[in-house]
Design brief:
By secondary structure, the chain is an alpha+beta fold. About 15% of the residues lie in helices and about 40% in strands. It contains seven helices and 25 strands. Helix 3 packs parallel to helix 5, helix 4 runs antiparallel to helix 5 and helix 6 runs antiparallel to helix 7.
Length: about 475
């Protein structure tokens, strides 16, 4: 089975620290296939990030980067295959316009068994060459006794081959996508897989159905909106070369699943590959929400509708507009399971690794807001100061002064850097500098109202000190 290596998106990231140059970054994945004529083989896919290399002038007067690579595959301490080579980047004439990334693909013929693949990579042009070395376990296990599926190869693009080359398979040039992480600017999953032995097992001229779809990683629920199939005739090798539109797929963890079924719809074989989606443009649909399994999550302990209602309401200061609308629907419906699913998805979309910790840390801030800004009649997170505190964090400077004959009090909050947590999904890099919030206490019993701010999206009134008695200043949120 193909493996991806890393902490966040499970893609293996090779980083080389060379004291005289910038870090070198590369991404590596692999996949195993089986040729009816030549037997099993392993393919490695390596993407080198051009910006991380030292580019030097070559004999043609252009700039070029290069990495020295050594790959060896061993079994029980014995080297079975090895390659050592220099991989050159494309040439560029002007380094001010950026540095191109470049891809390498290698193929190794192997037999069934367990192996250890060692990769060594270094910047060829670095003054001090210090290679990064790592090992990756490889397992190959193909048989002729049942229908089998190769590893799933994710693709950046595929085109019909005009001339066979290192990227060619089954008459197509397959440009690998060296990751299983799909950010919002990628709207399609393109993939290639091979199916073996269907003709032998089912018989010549038999029909097979190749289904491919996404399922929730947590609940294993199939997502009907991301599902398709291909009908083919059984052959020695059947090919699945296709794509799925994921433009509306919400952020989350999924499995890409390929199933092979016979003419009677009996499952013969399946293959799964994990993917991760980050999509801040789209909110979760009702059907996708229902696919979330919370039975093994921290949310399962929240079995009171009243408690969940309070928890969901305290999320309002950090909720996007679509989340606010969705939350209101859940609170009106008072469906415990849907409320649990919504609450879990809210935090999972913000912290895939540990949504519970993210929630508990936020809830501590809610308790602080309630204590500092609340009263017997209103929760602190429902006040203007509480909302700003939760949405933007504590201010760098918080001061108050009296500037009115009646003794009415202003409170001014100053932020050196401002990050809007309600936009963390739609725009995670949102940042403002040197922003101010002015609150006015109109009744002297701590009911401060926000009357001015120069932060984007907030109420703005440059004559706030002359108009503080006007009760028409309302929070636009």
């Amino acid at each position: 089975m193909k493996k991806f290596f890393a902490l966040f998106c499970l893609t293996f990231i090779v980083t080389i620290n060379v004291s005289t140059s910038a870090n070198v970054t590369a991404y590596l994945t692999h996949a195993t296939f089986n040729s009816p004529l030549k037997g099993p083989f392993l393919e490695t896919y390596l993407t080198v990030m051009g910006h991380s290399l030292k580019f030097v002038k070559n004999s043609a007067g252009n700039y070029q980067g290069a990495v020295d690579i050594a790959i060896s595959i061993s079994q029980n301490g014995e080297i079975k295959s090895a390659q050592k080579y220099t991989l050159n980047s494309p040439e560029i004439a002007d380094t001010t316009k950026g540095f191109p990334n470049f891809i390498d693909q290698q193929r190794f013929t192997l037999t069934n068994g367990s192996y250890s693949m060692e990769l060594s990579i270094s910047d060829k042009n670095a003054t001090i060459k210090k290679p990064f070395i790592t090992t990756v376990p490889i397992t190959i296990n193909f048989t002729d006794e049942r229908i089998m599926i190769s590893d799933i190869q994710f693709l950046e693009s595929f085109t019909k081959s005009s001339v066979p080359n290192a990227l060619s398979k089954s008459g197509y040039d397959l440009l690998p996508y060296v990751s299983n992480y799909y950010p919002e600017n990628i709207n399609k999953i393109k993939l290639y897989a091979e199916i073996y032995n269907s003709k032998k097992i089912l018989g010549a001229e038999q029909k097979i159905i190749l289904s491919y779809f996404l399922e929730s990683f947590e609940s294993k629920t199939r997502l009907s909106d991301y599902s398709a199939f291909s009908k083919q005739t059984a052959n020695d090798v059947n090919i699945l070369l296709t794509e799925l539109n994921i433009e509306a797929l919400p952020s989350g963890n999924y499995n890409l699943v390929i199933e092979i079924r016979d003419k009677d719809n009996k499952l013969q074989e399946e293959k799964k590959s994990f993917i991760q989606r980050q999509n801040k443009k789209n909110s979760l649909s009702f059907n996708d929400l229902k696919s979330i399994d919370v039975s093994k999550t921290f949310v399962r302990e929240y079995k009171s509708i009243d408690t969940l209602t309070e928890y969901i309401r305290c999320l309002y200061p950090i909720s996007g507009s679509s989340e606010l609308q969705f939350a209101e629907n859940q609170l009106r419906g008072k469906n415990l399971e849907l409320m649990q699913q919504y609450f879990y998805n809210f935090w999972q979309s913000r912290d895939l690794d540990d949504p519970q910790i993210a929630w508990l840390e936020y809830y501590k801030e809610v308790m602080k807001a309630n204590k500092q800004f609340g009263s017997t009649n209103i929760k602190g997170y429902n006040t203007d100061r509480g909302r700003v505190y939760l949405q933007y964090g504590p201010p760098n400077i918080r001061g108050g002064y009296e500037n009115d004959p009646t003794g009415s009090l202003y409170e001014i909050w100053q932020y050196n850097t401002l990050v809007d947590k309600s936009k963390i999904i739609s725009n995670p890099n949102n940042k403002q500098s040197n922003r101010k919030f002015v609150f006015y206490n109109s009744d002297l019993i701590s009911r401060y109202k926000l009357i001015h701010s120069d932060a984007i999206g907030e109420i703005h009134n440059t004559r706030w000190d002359a108009n503080n008695q006007d009760d028409n200043y309302n929070n636009p949120r």
